[in-house]
Design a protein that fits this description.
It is found in: Cytoplasm. Helices cover 23% and strands 40% of the residues. The protein is an alpha/beta fold. It is globular, with a radius of gyration of 15 Å.
């Protein structure tokens, strides 16, 4: 499972020129589910999102978490995070999970984050979306549950 986390001042998702979701200060998260992901991968990504400290404290150091600053989450599913363009010019998405599994894991992660008290808004799964954001910093972190220990 991969998550691209951007610290944002604001972010939104629109479909067919209609606003679907928007947040203020917080995380804009693009989430990709791999065909071999297990539920342990969801737990790893959830824990990292919950505890990631990329907000500045009074001394300007990245010591504060999303919960510390009362930030929100905008989560958007993005199967292209597993695009492989090493061969040729058109990426292969064969490592991306099929839609049913990807949606299930996406929803599980959203619900688990909500259970931890986070305000989570979403795009619309398997839909062409327009994502807008103001990246703060800029700060962008990539998480991958296939971490090398």
């Amino acid at each position: 499972m991969r998550a691209v986390i951007q610290k944002v001042k604001k972010a939104s998702v629109s479909v067919d020129n209609k606003l679907v979701s928007e947040i203020g200060y917080g995380f804009m998260i693009l989430l990709g589910v791999k065909d071999t992901d297990k539920e342990e991968d969801i737990e790893y990504i959830k824990k990292k999102i919950s505890k990631l400290r990329i907000f500045e404290d009074n001394e300007g150091k990245m010591n504060l978490s999303l919960k510390d600053v009362g930030g929100e989450i905008l989560m958007v599913s993005q199967f292209t995070l597993y695009g492989d363009a090493r061969k040729g010019n058109r990426p292969s998405f064969s490592q991306s999970a099929k839609a049913d599994k990807a949606e299930k894991y996406y929803e599980i992660l959203i619900n688990q984050l909500k259970e931890e008290g986070f305000e989570v808004k979403t795009g619309i799964f398997q839909t062409h979306m327009e994502v807008s954001l103001v990246n703060d910093g800029p700060v962008t972190i990539i998480l991958d549950s296939e971490r090398i220990v």
